[in-house]
């Protein structure tokens, strides 16, 4: 039986980066009210992933490369991945 510490370490290593990547895809692939909620989740998880990456680099953790790659994907991904939202439907600011 896995201990709580082992499960938490596994979530820290791969679970949270995958959750953040799924939030990025959800924010690009949803529209309407769900899209705005997904955008908020993505921004929150992006900030949290940045803090987690900073912590792993400062502590010289062995998972720093996974977290740096995830952070890079979360920054570049929204620019590269096409959105399902039409520019005509977006309000002009």
UniProtKB/TrEMBL annotation:
Source organism superkingdom: Bacteria
Keywords, sorted A to Z: Membrane, Transmembrane, Transmembrane helix
Transmembrane stretches, start-end: 6-26, 38-58, 64-84
Protein name: NnrS protein
Species of the source: Roseimaritima ulvae
Lineage, broadest ranks: Bacteria, Pseudomonadati, Planctomycetota, Planctomycetia, Pirellulales
């Amino acid at each position: 039986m896995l201990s709580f510490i082992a499960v938490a370490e596994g979530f820290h290593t791969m679970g949270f980066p995958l959750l953040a990547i799924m939030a990025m895809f959800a924010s690009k692939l949803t529209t309407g009210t769900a899209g705005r909620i997904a955008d908020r989740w993505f921004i929150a998880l992006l900030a949290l992933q940045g803090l987690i990456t900073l912590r792993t680099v400062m502590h010289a953790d062995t998972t720093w490369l996974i977290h740096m790659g995830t952070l890079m994907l979360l920054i570049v991904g929204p620019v590269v991945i096409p959105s399902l939202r039409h520019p005509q439907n977006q309000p002009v600011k």
